[in-house]
Design goal:
Helix content of chain B: 25-40%
Oligomer: heterodimer
Number of strands of chain B: 6
Radius of gyration of chain A: 23 Å
Number of strands of chain A: 0
Strand content of chain B: 25-35%
Number of helices of chain A: 18
Strand content of chain A: under 5%
Radius of gyration of chain B: 16 Å
Largest interface: A-B, 10 and 10 residues
Helix content of chain A: 55-70%
Largest sheet of chain B: 4 strands, antiparallel
Chain lengths: 365, 118
């Protein structure tokens, strides 16, 4: 099985769709071909059922595609290799494209893929959908890879966001587990704000200043419906909860009209499901919106005092925002300066620089 | 397919263990060993004496050198192993996850090199 998988992975890009899919133990080729076919059909117009045209029953096909995803995202493989193989074998990106997106060189990435394939063969990583017992953990690593790809393209690579949404859709179609639905919803809702996230000058526009009329309402509708569907399953995990928070934002007509109590409540549940200082920080920011900046500031100061997020630019930026609202200008300038020293992404840096200029800080940074 | 499960644990924690802890630890390992024997996955396995009893042996230019201690000093030490039969890596990981040492130490799973495959 593994050899066939490795062979399929090698040969498909060169040879194209096999004439006799049965002779291919593995569906790599078919999988991509179907996707490509679907894309073409979509461009021509109208969703056409292509599975029926293939010489095998759909059930096998679903299994094959899932098998490929689970094999590419096997946690026993190097994380970079998981991402690279997923993008290459499932999304059809070239090694060069993947390398460019993840700021590494193509040879390095190719090397990782070669090693991963050798491990699949030598350690006998099975080409299969995990058993029910192992599914939650294994699905989590698949979702993690998809979300990683999505976030990697957040500012600079909208094509990666599109690919990860496509991948998310495929997962939901093949394996409608609540967390898979949650992740798709989360990506759709975040991506719905893409056009308003930065201005023409490439500066980050914070949520409260975004032009909500330009949010993608179709995507929001879809995302919200998915959140409801996931909630109906009663097992609510971190992706569903984050999507629910995004949905509350997406449905509010303005920052002031946002149901901040609802958001704080969701963060409380999320924090219990997945304790993390970053989630604590977001919860503190929501509490500041609900109860006023002092309350939020006290919480953020407590998180920073623990030393958890000292090097996280958004912790200092959030703190600076609250200090600004409280009129503590010199403290706010100090905090924005600290955030700027830590921020890497250009859009975020520009926003911080604007904040500093507005507060009348000297251009020393 | 055969896999070697190498169990790395902080050997000091065994030294510090009370008699009751020791007994419980032994019982857990005994139960685990029985369970994989019953499942037909057990090939072999042993616990090792601590690394202070280890001797490292090298031959260079035909000259034998022996040194006191393990090959590398690490925070957790190789303390025992199981050689198992498993269907594939997922199956092996499943078995390895039930080794009592996996709860506090680390179990390294290594496929055995098979030389006589047709």
């Amino acid at each position: 099985m593994q050899d066939a998988f490795a062979a399929a992975v090698e040969r498909w890009p060169v040879e194209g769709m096999p004439t006799n899919p049965r002779s291919w133990l593995i569906s790599t080729g078919r999988f991509k071909a179907i996707d490509r076919l679907r894309k073409t059909r979509r461009e021509v117009g109208g969703e056409v059922e292509v599975i029926a045209e293939l010489p095998e029953e759909p059930h096998d096909l679903v299994d094959d595609r899932l098998r490929l995803i689970f094999t590419c995202c096997h946690p026993a493989l190097h994380p970079d290799a998981q991402v690279a193989m997923t993008l290459r074998e499932i999304c059809g990106l070239t090694t060069e494209e993947v390398a460019a997106a993840f700021l590494t060189t193509a040879p390095t990435l190719a090397q990782r893929i070669v090693r991963a394939k050798a491990k699949i063969r030598d350690a006998k990583i099975p080409y299969e959908v995990p058993e029910r017992r192992d599914l939650p953990g294994r699905l989590a690593s698949v979702l993690h890879v998809v979300y990683l790809v999505f976030n990697q393209g957040y500012f600079t690579r909208p094509d990666l966001a599109t690919e990860s949404i496509r991948l998310g859709r495929l997962l939901v179609e093949l394996l409608p587990e609540p967390e898979a639905i949650g992740l798709l919803a989360l990506m759709l809702l975040h991506d719905a704000r893409r056009a308003t996230r930065t201005n023409a000058g490439g500066e980050l526009i914070p949520l409260e200043e975004q032009d909500r009329s330009r949010w993608n309402s179709a995507q929001i509708q879809e995302g919200v419906a998915l959140v409801e569907r996931a909630f109906a399953s009663r097992s609510v995990g971190p992706y569903v909860l984050q999507a629910a928070i995004a949905a509350v934002h997406a449905e509010a007509s303005s920052s002031a009209a946002t149901d901040w109590s609802e958001i704080v409540g969701l963060y409380d549940v999320l924090l219990r499901a997945e304790p993390s200082p970053v989630i604590e920080l977001n919860r503190a920011a929501a509490i500041a919106m609900r109860d006023g900046p002092e309350r939020g500031l006290a919480l953020i100061d407590a998180i920073l005092a623990r030393g958890d997020l000292q090097a996280y630019h958004l912790a200092h930026a959030a703190r600076a925002d609250l200090l600004r609202r409280l009129g503590r200008t010199s403290d706010a300038i100090a905090a924005y300066t600290q955030a700027l020293a830590l921020a890497v992404e250009e859009p975020e840096r520009r926003l911080l620089e604007r904040r500093l200029r507005k507060l009348g800080a000297q251009e020393t940074v | 397919m055969r896999y070697l499960c190498l169990i790395y644990e902080d050997e000091k924690s065994w030294e510090k263990a009370t008699e009751a802890d020791m007994k419980q630890g032994m019982a857990e390992y005994g139960a685990f060993t029985d369970s994989i024997k019953n499942a037909g996955k057990y090939i072999g396995g042993e616990a090792l004496q601590p690394t202070k009893t280890a001797t490292s042996v090298r031959v260079r230019n035909g000259k034998l050198s022996t040194t006191d201690g393990p090959y590398v000093e690490t925070k957790e030490q190789l303390g025992g192993y199981y050689l198992i039969n498993a269907k594939d890596l997922n199956d092996a990981v499943q078995v390895a996850s039930r080794i009592p040492g996996a709860k506090h130490g680390t179990v390294e799973v290594r496929p055995v090199m098979e030389f006589n495959q047709p």
